[in-house]
Design a protein that fits this description.
With about 625 residues, the chain is an alpha+beta fold. It is built from 16 helices and 37 strands.
Length: about 625
């Protein structure tokens, strides 16, 4: 058995691996960048080694430093988690060559499934159904356009080295193909250093079904049933569940058997996921489910599989990597109940899901039945990495109870002062179509603004804030009468709005203190911060309201406006590429672009001024 394990990752997955390793009596080593020097995974590990500057390309993606850290601390194994170097065959081989145990599949297996085009050819040969499309070597614009025309629109362009929803574009009409191909290649080059693409027929009502597989070094391969990850935004998973709604036993047997064949075709060892796309226009049917790709690592959503099978997948990984056979054979595995997971992110749904970075003063996640997180109160969300705060998981005897339990948890958790997608997650879970399991990958896009929580009513929220601050000396009694308790009110500020909070009024909303003069108020998954400190500036728009600030380090890839140009609220001004995603920054109100501080191609740091909008002339402005 492994005696000391180095985790070549960060955040919640590093904390998750540390927990299981500790339970197994295995010592742990964390690695960290400058930004993560005081991170939770560093505090929880037995040892920690600094591996470089904050950017991942200079730390978590530098395999030589990670292997050196393992040798320095006497670790005998490396667990890559997911993301970063987890599916890098060269890194896996380098770890093995250094005499370390690689907690993952063989490098050859990673390589075989690393490129989507080659993987599809391999799957066809193994008798695994694949989506109609083009995976050829001729990558000329003309050939790709001709193949897309032959497949028929809509068609999906996918980077062969893609993952995480990056490097994917849906093309609805022939005239859009060239522009979409250019955009896809640009993102693929930035994310994966590979511009090659493949084409797939767009499934009209697609569901994303994936199967957890596990193999060992003794030739055994099992599946741990399926997960449904159809609820997605821009090809990124939002809600995952297991098992898949509407999956009958015959279809389950067919898709899981295909997944096992896929794993055996690459002599697979360790945890992996076979991802399928299902045409659900007539329900889930075995003859309408097609192979998409294989993820040769542990998945973000692995907890839902653990909940319905009672298996600790990280423990299995460590045992298999140590040379042990699989702890269970197929006949011993069965589904128990239902599990649903929601990914809580620091991002602002009202502003196009723009990632939020900065300190977390309040983190109360205890209401969720199971929480996987890499942060605590006092930690920060860094602009250098994925802004996930936590994964929230509910397990129950049936889907409806699990759904209700997760909604209840989202009503009670509190995170501040950063904006989160908490209310958006609640709206997704509470949506009638999701509740009825009428699922497809386009559900969130079809609902649009309906899933973005409205602004919290200020009067009721202000009363909740005032009640929480009730003991503060800032209050003065007003309206005093004999034999009657005084009504005490206070002026509060929230989002630039001046409101009055009544201490004597009761409110059903949840509230918590943020220091001496601020309160966060939550209702149905949404939150709002009230403070006794007035904002800077006066008038309809406060000073700096029109500043367009970089929310994180990145590259300006497009500028749509010029200085002096009139702009309208919501109009796109420029596009920032950061965290391997494109983020549109828009005008906050009608006005004039008074200053443009950057041009296309500029590299900018977090909080850099990009542009400034001056409001249109208003009464009293």
């Amino acid at each position: 058995m492994i005696s000391k394990l180095l985790i070549a990752n960060r955040g919640e997955i590093a904390c998750r691996i540390i927990r299981t390793a500790r339970e197994m009596g295995i010592a742990t080593v964390a690695v960290y960048s400058d930004a993560d020097a005081r991170a939770l995974h560093v505090r929880e590990a037995d040892e920690a080694v600094h591996i470089g500057p904050s950017p991942a390309a200079e730390s978590y993606l530098v395999g030589e430093r990670i292997i050196a850290a393992a040798k320095q601390t006497g670790a005998d194994a490396i667990h890559p988690g997911y993301g970063f170097l987890s599916e890098n065959a060269a890194f896996a081989q380098a770890a093995i060559d250094a005499g370390l145990i690689w907690v993952g599949p063989k490098p050859a297996s990673i390589e075989a499934m690393g490129l989507k085009d080659a993987a599809k050819k391999l799957m066809r040969a193994a008798g695994v159904p694949v989506t109609p499309g083009y995976e050829g070597d001729d990558q000329s614009d003309a050939r790709l356009k001709a193949e897309a025309d032959a497949i028929g629109y809509p068609v999906l362009i996918k980077a062969v080295a893609g993952g995480g929803g990056k490097g994917m574009r849906k093309v609805d009409a022939a005239e859009d193909f060239a522009a979409m191909l250019e955009s896809c290649r640009r993102e693929a080059k930035a994310s994966f250093g590979n511009t090659q693409v493949l084409l797939e027929k767009w499934i009209t009502r697609p569901r994303h079904i994936e199967v957890q597989v596990f193999g060992d070094a003794h030739g055994n391969v099992v599946h741990l049933f399926e997960r449904d990850c159809s609820l997605q935004r821009r090809h990124q998973k939002v809600i995952e569940e297991a098992p898949a709604p509407g999956m009958d036993e015959a279809t389950r047997e067919a898709i899981c058997a295909a997944a096992v064949r896929a794993a055996k075709a690459v002599d697979y060892e360790g945890a992996g996921t076979i991802e399928f796309i299902a045409d659900a226009s007539e329900g889930l049917r075995a003859d309408r489910i097609f192979f998409m790709e294989m993820n040769t690592r542990l998945q973000v959503e692995h907890p839902v599989t653990e909940e319905i099978t009672g298996v600790d997948l990280v423990e299995w990984q460590l045992r298999v990597a140590s040379g042990e056979p699989l702890p269970k054979r197929q006949e011993a595995l069965e589904i128990d109940g239902w599990a649903i997971e929601a990914r809580l992110y620091a991002e602002d749904p009202a502003k196009g899901f723009l990632p939020a970075t900065g300190p977390l003063e309040l983190v109360e996640l205890w209401a969720a039945p199971r929480v996987e997180t890499g942060v605590e109160a006092g930690d920060s969300i860094s602009p250098f990495y994925d802004p996930m705060i936590a994964k929230l998981i509910a397990h129950a005897p049936d889907r409806e109870t699990a759904r209700a339990d997760l909604i209840d948890a989202l009503d009670q958790i509190l995170v501040a002062p950063l904006k989160t997608n908490q209310g958006f997650l609640r709206a997704c879970l509470d949506d009638p179509d999701f509740a009825a399991a009428r699922l497809d990958t386009g559900l969130i896009a079809a609902k649009g603004e309906a899933l973005i929580p409205p602004a919290m009513p200020s009067a009721q929220a202000a009363n909740a804030a005032a009640a929480m601050l009730g003991g503060a000396p800032l209050y003065a009694p007003v309206g005093f009468r004999l034999n009657r308790a005084p009504e005490r009110t206070i002026t509060l500020w929230s989002d630039g709005e001046r409101v009055t909070g009544d201490v004597a009024r009761t409110s059903p909303l949840t509230a918590a203190l943020l220091g001496d003069d601020s309160v966060v108020v939550a209702d149905r998954g949404s939150s709002r911060i009230f403070t006794t400190t007035p904002p800077r500036g006066t008038g309809a728009h406060h000073a700096h309201d029109g500043d367009i600030i970089a929310p994180m380090p990145g590259k300006v890839i497009a500028v749509d406006v010029a200085e002096g140009q009139a702009v309208t609220a919501g109009q796109r001004l420029l596009v920032l590429e950061a965290m391997k995603m494109e983020h549109a920054l828009t005008a906050p109100f009608d006005g004039t672009l008074a200053e443009l501080a950057v041009s296309a191609g500029a590299q900018v740091q977090v909080e850099a001024l990009l542009a400034r909008v001056e409001p249109a002339n208003e009464e009293g402005a």
